[in-house]
Model the fold of this input.
Amino acid sequence: MKFEHEISESYSYDAYIALIDRLLAENKTTGSNQSESLVAYTQLNRQRIKRLDKKAELSPELTQRLSELDGKQRWIVLTEAWCGDAAQIVPLLAKIADASEHIDLELILRDDNLNVMDAFLTNGGRSIPKLIALDEEDNVLFSWGPRPNEAQQILHDHKNNVDGKTMQDFPQNLHGWYAKDKTKSIQKEFVEMLRL
Done:
């Protein structure tokens, strides 16, 4: 499939972080919904991003796989500053892209690029973050997201009240899982995807 979508604006990782910081200084977040809760989520997410920027390290397996890549890839990632999954994942995607001369990372805001988002829905929903990997001719190599398989199962269990789990408990349980997992699950999934 060819990627033939207009993008309103894209950001490098550093420019994306600068945008978040500028908006937070104005008590704002990305997107049109400027509710207090979304601004509060953005403040919390900024702390998560700082932690991952400092502590996340790529596994030897993923580093090896990145060294074996040939041909350029353009990674377009749909994200928003208020999204908790994005805060846990986008910093790692940036580290992966930084570790390979073959990967160029572009971050785009979901709400400003609904034409792109609507072409890459997850079970009919506009779930983010969403990565779209393209080759040099803008053919879609793969898409990934919004979260690793194990984290997606946590959402499923909460939505379906498995073992008494409720959606009210979901954010705490999900972010607790991310903290314990330390990006290992995402990295394993990328080792496999990059074999394609």
Notes: The beta strands are 73-79, 103-109, 130-134, 140-144. The first strand starts at residue 73 and ends at 79.
